[in-house]
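Anyone up for a design puzzle?
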C-alpha cells in the first residue's frame, strides 16, 4: 500500500496554479468520510439493535459516502478518462493508455468490493462477528481506494498537466469544465466545496491548493451557497470537520 505522510500526496508548491485540484481535494474528503465511518462502526455500542439510532447513523454515513464515490468514479470513467485519452499524443498516448488501463482495473476491483459492502450495510450487522467482518471488508475497500487515488494523483495527474501545458491547453481546460459541470449538476453532492474547504483548513498545503482552485471573489460566495444544499446539513452532522490532518490516522486505520 502506498504510505502517505501528512500532505505528502500534495506534490505541488503552495500557491502554484494547479489543474484538477478539485479531484485531489475530493479524494481527501472521501478519505475523511471513510475514516469517520470506520471509527463509527468500530465504536458502535455492542448492544445496538438493527433498528437502533447507531445503526441508522452508520447506514446514513455509508449511503452518503457511497453516492459520492459512485458519482466520482462515474465522472472519471465517462468524462475525464475518455477525454484525456483523446487528448494525449505521441509517446504520452502510450503512457496514458497504460495508466488508464490500471485505473480502470482498480475501478473494477472497487466496484466488486463496493457491491458486497452495499449488501452488508443493508443486512443486520449488529452481531459481533458480522460487525467485525463488515469492518474488515470496509478496511479492504479503503486500502484499495487509497492505492487507487494515489495512482490517480501520482500517475494520471502529471500526464494530464503535461497536456495542459502543450498545444491542447484549451481542450484540457474545456474537459475540466465538463467534469465541473457534471458535479455542479448533482445537487446531492452540494456539500463538496465546503467539505474541501474544511479539510483544507487542517493543512497549509491543502489550503493553498484550495485557494488556487478558483478566483478569490468567487470562492467565498460559491462555497457559502453550496452549504444550503439538501445533503449539506446531513453531511456536516454525520462527518464533522477534522481538527487535524487525517492522513496518519487514515493510514493507521488500514493496518
Ligand atoms: Fe477513480
Ligand atoms: Fe478519483
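Challenge accepted. My sequence:
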Amino acid at each position: 500500500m502506498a504510505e502517505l505522510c501528512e500532505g505528502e500526496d500534495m506534490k505541488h508548491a503552495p500557491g502554484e496554479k494547479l489543474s484538477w485540484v478539485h479531484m485531489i481535494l475530493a479524494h481527501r474528503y472521501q478519505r475523511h468520510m471513510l475514516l469517520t465511518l470506520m471509527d463509527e462502526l468500530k465504536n458502535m455500542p455492542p448492544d445496538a439493535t438493527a433498528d437502533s439510532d447507531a445503526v441508522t447513523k452508520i447506514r446514513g454515513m455509508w449511503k452518503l459516502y457511497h453516492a459520492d464515490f459512485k458519482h466520482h468514479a462515474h465522472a472519471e470513467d465517462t468524462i475525464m478518462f475518455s477525454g484525456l485519452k483523446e487528448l494525449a499524443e505521441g509517446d504520452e498516448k502510450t503512457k496514458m493508455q497504460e495508466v488508464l488501463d490500471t485505473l480502470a482495473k482498480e475501478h473494477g476491483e472497487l466496484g466488486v468490493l463496493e457491491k458486497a459492502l452495499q449488501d452488508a450495510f443493508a443486512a443486520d450487522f449488529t452481531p459481533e462477528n458480522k460487525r467485525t467482518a463488515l469492518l474488515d471488508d470496509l478496511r479492504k475497500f479503503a486500502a484499495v481506494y487509497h492505492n487507487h487515488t494515489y495512482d490517480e494523483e501520482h500517475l494520471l495527474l502529471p500526464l494530464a498537466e503535461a497536456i495542459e501545458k502543450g498545444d491542447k491547453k484549451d481542450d484540457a481546460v474545456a474537459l475540466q469544465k465538463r467534469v465541473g459541470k457534471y458535479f455542479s449538476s448533482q445537487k446531492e453532492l452540494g456539500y463538496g466545496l465546503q467539505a474541501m474547504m474544511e479539510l483544507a483548513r487542517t493543512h497549509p498545503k491543502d489550503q493553498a491548493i484550495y485557494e488556487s482552485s478558483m478566483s478569490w471573489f468567487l470562492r467565498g460566495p460559491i462555497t457559502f451557497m453550496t452549504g444550503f444544499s439538501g445533503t449539506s446539513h446531513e453531511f456536516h452532522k454525520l462527518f464533522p470537520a477534522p481538527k487535524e490532518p487525517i492522513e496518519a490516522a487514515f493510514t493507521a486505520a488500514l493496518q
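A detail worth pointing out: The mean pLDDT is 86.
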